[in-house]
Amino acid sequence: MARAEPMNVLYERVALIGLGLIAGSMGLRMKRDGLVGEIVGTARSPETRSIAIELGLCDRVTDTAAEAVKDADLVVLCVPVGAMETVTREIAPHLKPGATVSDVGSVKGAVIDAVAPHLPAGVAFIPAHPLAGTEHSGPRSGFPELFDNRWCLLTPTGDAPEAADRLARLWRAMGSNVDTMEPDHHDRVLAVTSHAPHLIAYTMVGVADDLRRVTDSEVIKYSAAGFRDFTRIAASDPVMWRDVFLNNKEATLEILGRFTEELFALQRAIRKGDGDHLHAYFTRTRAIRRGIIEAGQDTDKPNFGRGDAS
Amino acid sequence: MARAEPMNVLYERVALIGLGLIAGSMGLRMKRDGLVGEIVGTARSPETRSIAIELGLCDRVTDTAAEAVKDADLVVLCVPVGAMETVTREIAPHLKPGATVSDVGSVKGAVIDAVAPHLPAGVAFIPAHPLAGTEHSGPRSGFPELFDNRWCLLTPTGDAPEAADRLARLWRAMGSNVDTMEPDHHDRVLAVTSHAPHLIAYTMVGVADDLRRVTDSEVIKYSAAGFRDFTRIAASDPVMWRDVFLNNKEATLEILGRFTEELFALQRAIRKGDGDHLHAYFTRTRAIRRGIIEAGQDTDKPNFGRGDAS
């Protein structure tokens, strides 16, 4: 992507509240491509703040979120969903009139409930969720290409169209495709594509860990047969995911209910030896993979091109 | 790996019965490194046989398995588990005295029951299971490095130690690490590391496909948030997996029972808002990922180094 000229700077000052994988990747990309003026960052831990300066995730750090948002044109809340309300209460009195507040939470309905009521008039809230990440977390895990070809979903209320347009331009400039949708719909879609799969992966890995008869070392040694893909998902940040499940409860539990229903049907087919049912089911699921590859959302290389565990 | 000298040839003639991903990868590797003399292959479909010749998976093909095993020192059954008995009955009268018969099935107990009783005296049966594969299948999906750094599990009965040693040498020469274990233990371990995870992935992908409210296109578009990893597993060969579940019924159903038990406990924690339970669980599972990477069974690169869907 071509470097943006100063005249193309989208925000004079951006405040990143929380400096983990997402904020770090945003900071590196905004700086690499000159998308904004100054980037101010803050995190609760002094160690995280000094790592952020060391890695150049932002231009300067402040000890508190209240200081960080001073004169910021864009404030991005990059903290776990469960911390959104506390942070919002802290920064609200210090927000610049006309500023835009956004977030990167994996849940939108609960975040809107936690943030919107505490913002002063004249500040636009444009919730956002970049569908990008890795199993790694923390300030050292960010990289500027994280958002390339990924989707960023905005759930604007519609009362600040210009602020929403500018934020969408920023996400596109960081490499994302941008869609907008209703918060409730977002939470239902993500329950299927992300939240339920994560809980299922966590569960399977926990079960394997519980089985003393099959020693951990065997589970690990022979994990390449499928299990290792689950462990990658189940290595994601525990705090982030705890908050996701607690804040997208209904949609996630509904999908999990559908899942167990379906799983019981397949278990019965196995028990009864109904090979036709199994074969038809497995043939149907194969087509979905093809669709994902054609949509450019994954690689067609065998084993994700991890080739192989080298 | 250094080319083997002719004097190091492990088998003068090898017969591959079935020419899919595993047989194709074996053929390419054995030829690349000069591990054996002649490789004869056979498959039910004439198209598969001509592709095998076109790609050089074997030196020649025969129309029937009976012809393929003639004068073969090693016969490897590379057909779905459900086809093992039929193929064994067909080849048994034509096996060379002193020959070794092996297989590459994902289940060992059921394969031993299907094959061993039909083999003539003087033929050694050494069951094998290479823990290697991709979501692709068929003769065009093989590649000679498939087995590098993967495990191959042998479950020999112990009455033909020399035949087992030679087969272990072949698998090591093809890049694998080799372990031996009891068939029942193998089937229990694989139920955890492979069979249950596959059924769970198939189930989740099927559920997503069923949800009309969340359109397929949305599931596919936004799959990068975790779901896409499930779809890779759920793209595996339907016939192979149908047979795996039907032939490792008890162990798989037992693990699935443990899984649903655990899943219900986590669902209850979500419903009750028990964040401590979730956080403790997710923290524990994270450690297992680390073990797998340290054991060299997966890459530590973010997102398997797929970087990212490019």
TrEMBL record, chains A, B:
Metabolic or biological pathway: Amino-acid biosynthesis; L-tyrosine biosynthesis; (4-hydroxyphenyl)pyruvate from prephenate (NAD(+) route): step 1/1
PROSITE patterns: PDH_ADH
BP GO terms, sorted: tyrosine biosynthetic process
EC number: 1.3.1.12
Keywords in alphabetical order: Amino-acid biosynthesis, Aromatic amino acid biosynthesis, NAD, Oxidoreductase, Tyrosine biosynthesis
Pfam families for the chain: PDH_C, PDH_N
SUPFAM superfamilies: 6-phosphogluconate dehydrogenase C-terminal domain-like, NAD(P)-binding Rossmann-fold domains
Ranges where the Prephenate/arogenate dehydrogenase domain occurs: 12-300
GO molecular function: NAD+ binding; prephenate dehydrogenase (NAD+) activity; prephenate dehydrogenase (NADP+) activity
Reaction it catalyzes: prephenate + NAD(+) = 3-(4-hydroxyphenyl)pyruvate + CO2 + NADH
Family indicated by similarity: Belongs to the prephenate/arogenate dehydrogenase family.
Protein name listed in UniProt: prephenate dehydrogenase
